[in-house]
Amino acid sequence: MNVKNILLTGAAGKIGRAVLPELSKAGYSVRALEYTDGLKVDRLPNVEVVTGDLRDPSTAKRLIADMDVVIHMANVKENKELFLDANIKGTFYLLDACKEAGNVKQFIQAGSDARAGIYYYPQPIPIDENHRHSGYPGYYPLSKVLEEVMCEQYQIMYQTPITILRFSWVHDEDDILAHVTLEEPCLGVPVWRDWAVTPEQKAYFKEGKNGVACLVHADGSAGKRHIVSIKDVVKSIMLAIGNPTAIGEAFNVSGPSPFAYDAMANYVAEKLNLPVVRFEVSEFNDFCIEMSKSRSVLGFTPEYDIFRIVDDALAFRAAGKTRSACLYPG
Ligand SMILES: NC(=O)c1ccc[n+]([C@@H]2O[C@H](COP(=O)([O-])OP(=O)(O)OC[C@H]3O[C@@H](n4cnc5c(N)ncnc54)[C@H](O)[C@@H]3O)[C@@H](O)[C@H]2O)c1
């Protein structure tokens, strides 16, 4: 597939800002959408920055002209007021503009493992691409399911060339430390403070002491989950672009393997010289994302296991960097 011109929506977001430099370096001509929420898109070679709001149907028509590939990353997360207009109508306007224009060879939609419910439901077997849509409660998972269904229908009704990349929880900067240590910022779920029941656990928050959380089940075994580094996410997007075998397909995009909270917590605790604090979390089911389809069809080999993700986060802090502005952290 001959690909020259790429539209990237959500170009100032967590994933967009990481993939944009790679698209620029690869020599693509990129039209990058900057939203009016104050987050700025980096000005880079081969990148035309266009300002707009996907809730306005005329934006999609304007953006699609002359594009070979659309990479749709713009999204709002857990937001009841905005998700229908920004995510559902926004995706619909883009899909429909592609259908009308007829020039787009591939529409890459950002999916999420949230559409499969991950930790919220028991997951006795690895979650593969055929796992039915079954988001956990919330407007974000609802949105991710509806976006995918719209894409699937456009493929069926109008042969729109869809590729869906279903990312696991994406880790950039020092996200993993923000998640697993008890001090602020507290990123993602579980929110450890909500699971503090013993006097010892409560003291950490009352006295502002830091520690490293280890999620355990009622039987004392460590929780297991599957996440992905931003570096592997960028790699998956670059592999999908222009790949004819990716058309009409959905792919899981996660790390090389799931991790266990005890192994991760012990590693972080040793590096930061902090105590490990165990939290029994009843509302958490272990899950594993099945990666064989992405490996075999896309040639995607994720490289960042939990220890490399932690090492990157430690290096980020050691370099004195500050976390990027983000309207919808997670
Ligand atoms: N970050 C993750 O852990 C993760 C995991 C799985 C899937 N995803 C999916 O990947 C995609 C990108 O995620 P992200 O973390 O980079 O999101 P993000 O919130 O960091 O960025 C989204 C961008 O969309 C833009 N945007 C919001 N409303 C808009 C509108 N009306 N018009 C135009 N632009 C608008 C915002 O400016 C923002 O820059 C999303 O679809 C998300 O659901 C993300």
**What is the CATH top level name of the largest domain?**
Alpha Beta
Roughly how much helix do the residues carry, as a percent range? 25-40%
Count of domain modules = 2
Runs in which pLDDT lies below 50 for 5 or more consecutive residues are none
For the sheet with most strands, the description reads: 7 strands, parallel
Rough outline: globular
Please outline what is shown here.
With 330 residues, the chain is of the alpha/beta class. The chain has helices at 16-25, 57-64, 83-101, 139-158, 175-180, 199-206, 230-240, 261-272, 292-298, 306-318, and strands spanning 5-9, 29-34, 47-51, 69-72, 106-112, 162-167, 169-171, 212-216, 224-225, 227-229, 249-253, 259-260, 276-280. The mean pLDDT is 97.
Task: Please describe what this structure looks like.
The chain starts with a strand and ends in a 12-residue tail after the last helix. The chain has a 7-stranded parallel beta sheet with strand order 3-2-1-4-5-6-11, sandwiched between helices. Helix 3 links the parallel strand 4 and strand 5. Helices cover 35% and strands 18% of the residues. The chain is of the alpha/beta class and 330 residues long. The protein has 2 domains: 191 residues, Rossmann fold; 96 residues, UDP-galactose 4-epimerase, domain 1 (Alpha-Beta Complex), CATH 3.90.25. The radius of gyration is 20 Å and the shape is globular. It is built from 10 helices and 13 strands. The model has no long low-confidence stretch (mean pLDDT 97). Bound molecules: nicotinamide-adenine-dinucleotide. Nicotinamide-adenine-dinucleotide binds next to helix 3, strand 5 and strand 7.
